[in-house]
Specification:
Layout (H helix, E strand, L loop, with lengths): L2 E3 L18 E2 L5 E3 L4 E5 L9 H10 L4 E4 L10 H8 L10 E2 L13 H7 L18 E5 L2 E5 L11 H12 L4 E5 L18 H9 L4 E4 L5 E4 L15 E5 L16 E5 L4 E7 L3 E8 L7 E6 L23 E3 L11 E3 L2 E3 L16 E3 L26 E3 L5 E4 L9 E4 L8 E4 L10 E5 L11 E8 L3 E10 L2 E9 L5 E3 L3 E3 L4 E5 L1
Parallel strand pairs: 2-23, 4-5, 5-6, 8-9, 9-10, 10-12, 18-20, 19-31
Antiparallel strand pairs: 1-24, 1-26, 3-17, 4-14, 7-8, 11-12, 11-13, 14-15, 15-16, 21-24, 22-23, 25-31, 26-27, 27-28, 28-29, 28-30
């Protein structure tokens, strides 16, 4: 184990450290979340000789939210001229709020140069000033959801750069709900293309990490599937729901053999799919163009429980904190408690009382963690009054600090003030010889104000891939934690979510 890292993302901060005298306290934080976001779009869109792309663009004119595209944006070859003359006057008027994905027709132009030139940085934010042969995959947060745009037109096989990036991104994902979109569908009843087994590695990674929704185009139809596994087995508990929405404007296709788990199909109607993304669920609505009447609407819950994922976890950095929130710039650190308290000790988390986190504890734990320095993963405390014992620290321009007011035991503790979107964490590069992995820390969630469904890491430990991490969330009106770890076969296992009280806790992982 060469690297132990702690991550703090924007709206919720938690700190942990191992060893005797390791202390944690959190500042008062005020968060406000906007209305649940809308995610709307389709694939197979613009053709200068057609009019349906203008009709679907008019739907977007009256639907606020983030626009997605599912590839084949400009027919027939994705040239710069076709993007300018065909896509630009229709869907292009929503370019500033569009998060695109490329399709095979976009790659009829070498390196999809027309696509990457037209959309610019929005098409491949992982590249710098790229206009041809770019990655074309990326991720972002939208409300409480993590959104992933993938590129089915470049290598996406198991072990490919894109597939490994996807697994890394999913491993670092803090959101409870996840949606991914790209062009070619894993499952489709369309006669022109149908199922695409080459996409299975992407589906497998998403399934391993309990993604919820996949959106695709390619077949010019509308089709909704029930939640299913990467091999097409019905899985209502943790399966992914797929929508094929190739109805953006290009000529519609016919259906062939109906695939298992297909619930709704239509190949006579142009339109867009409108998704409303709630904290732990979503609503869908297929919106037809003027003069057509087919629609499809419903709702689903996110996959928040069930069997542990079996993925290889390879995070290399913390998640990007881009959820729509605002944090108070006048947050004031709370003073340390003054009375005596024996903290809750959690080896594998055990349930505590379920209460809404509104009170402020006034008690201080006085016991010393039962740890042995010989088998600690790290033992960098704060009794020096600084971060000097750590390999490195990202303090967010001074918002992460060591202070006596944060002490839950000993004289000093780590304190975090949330007032911007800068990640804050400490890193220990030194634990190399341990034969077992063990960490102990105090943690107090008392001053955190979290919206329902907000979640983040308290602790990440990884070498080449994630070895274990402690997750923290606010769900069902209570604070909850769980531990996830990787076994010798690189499969990830997790404990159940454990409710903890709004009070100081001593947590030990082993």
């Amino acid at each position: 184990m060469r690297l132990m890292q702690r991550l703090f993302t924007v709206y919720v901060l938690a700190v942990f450290l191992g060893g005797v005298g390791v202390l944690v306290s959190l500042p008062e934080t005020i968060l406000a979340q906007t209305a649940d976001p809308v995610f709307v779009g389709a694939g197979d869109i613009a053709k200068c000789s057609a009019t349906q792309d203008e009709a679907t663009a008019k739907l977007l004119d009256s639907i606020a939210g983030t626009v997605f595209t599912l590839g084949d944006n400009a027919y027939s070859d994705g040239t710069t001229t076709q993007f300018t003359d065909c896509y630009g006057p229709t869907w292009g008027r929503h370019k500033n709020r569009t998060r695109p994905a490329p399709g095979n027709h976009d790659y009829h132009t070498v390196g999809a140069a027309g696509y990457y030139t037209y959309f610019g940085a929005a098409a491949s934010p992982l590249d710098t000033n790229c206009t041809s042969g770019c990655k074309g995959y990326y991720s972002y947060n939208l409300g409480a959801w993590h959104i992933i745009a993938l590129n089915s037109e470049i290598d996406h096989a198991s072990g490919s750069v894109q597939e490994q990036w996807l697994r890394t991104d999913l491993a670092a994902n803090q959101s409870m709900c996840t949606l991914a979109y790209w062009h070619k569908p894993r499952f489709s009843s369309g006669a022109n293309h149908g199922n695409n087994s080459s996409i299975q590695p992407l589906w497998q990674a998403l399934y391993d990490y309990r993604a919820d929704v996949v959106l695709n185009g390619h077949d010019h139809t509308y089709e909704r599937f029930a939640p299913q596994s990467p091999t097409g087995q019905a899985d209502p508990t943790r399966g992914i729901r797929e929508f094929v929405v190739g109805t953006g404007g290009a000529g519609l296709y016919s259906f062939s053999t109906t695939q298992p788990n297909s619930e709704v199909r239509n190949n006579t109607t142009f339109g867009v799919l409108k998704l409303t993304l709630h904290a732990t669920s979503y609503n869908w609505e297929f919106v037809p163009i003027a003069g057509q009447t087919f629609t499809d609407a419903g709702s689903g819950n996110c996959v928040v429980s069930g069997a542990a994922p079996t993925a290889t976890r390879t995070p290399t950095s913390g998640p990007s904190a881009t959820r729509t929130v605002t944090a108070s710039r006048t947050s004031t650190p709370m003073t340390g408690p003054t009375a005596t308290r024996t903290p809750t000790i959690t080896r594998t988390p055990t349930l505590g009382p379920s209460i809404t986190p509104t009170k402020t504890p006034t008690k201080t734990p006085t016991n010393t963690p039962d740890v042995s320095a010989s088998d600690l993963i790290f033992a960098n405390g704060f009794e020096s009054g600084s971060f000097s014992a750590w390999s490195s620290a990202s303090t967010g321009a001074g918002d992460l600090s060591v202070t006596a007011s944060a002490a839950l035991a000993g004289s000093n503790g780590m304190q975090a003030v949330i007032n911007d979107t800068t990640a804050m964490y400490t890193v220990d590069n030194t634990p190399n010889a341990e034969k077992r992995y063990r960490a102990s820390f105090y943690f107090d969630p008392n001053s955190i104000s979290m919206a329902e469904g907000n979640a983040h890491y308290i602790f990440i430990g990884y070498d080449v891939s994630a070895v274990f991490n402690m997750d923290f969330r606010f769900f069902g009106g209570s604070y909850q934690i769980r531990l996830r770890q990787q076994n010798d076969s690189q499969a990830t296992q997790s404990t159940a979510w454990a409710t903890i009280s709004d009070a100081p806790h001593f947590i030990e992982m082993e």
